[in-house]
Amino acid sequence: xxxxxxxxxxxxxxxxxxxxxxxxxxxxxxxxxxxxxxxxxxxxxxxxxxxxxxxxxxxxxxxxxxxxxxxxxxxxxxxxxxxxxxxxxxxxxxxxxxxxxxxxxxxxxxxxxxxxxxxxxxxxxxxxxxxxxxxxxxxxxxxxxxxxxxxxxxxxxxxxxxxxxxxxxxxxxxxxxxxxxxxxxxxxxxxxxxxxxxxxxxxxxxx
Length: 207
What we know:
2 domains; single chain; two-stranded parallel ribbon; DNA polymerase, domain 1; mainly alpha
């Protein structure tokens, strides 16, 4: 058997077995034409996987963003999230080397980090104070979940497009539960006055 291996750009030779011209085929070392076809396809697939270039998270990000830009709307926000939280931690890593525990640790760390402020590119990234109240902590976990969702979407895209062979590492990771609850807050007296003053006269009495 001789076939062209796309990743290496070389021809590869492989002996499949003997023809069944003089002996009956046994499906192992003596093959009929149909068995040769099946075995050739299987070997070509396995050899291509074995020599294919290992995929890094950075490679998967580029693959995902190329698709995302054509099929989704929040490209800028997603790209910012990736550059801020995913590439600095995993960009250089081979997807095949990722471990469930390290992604879990990263996810947990995101939930305890201070919120980022909008900061000019020329300046060092600024942060808000770490929230210490239950609502604030719940909000940080919700943010961590959204970032985790982006990472899993990137890796799943690579998996479903057959660029990697397994998805069990990140499939085991679950988001924080019960963190998407709406934040309940009442207006202060000052805020109430501002709202009333900003309302048009014919609607103000109702407000």
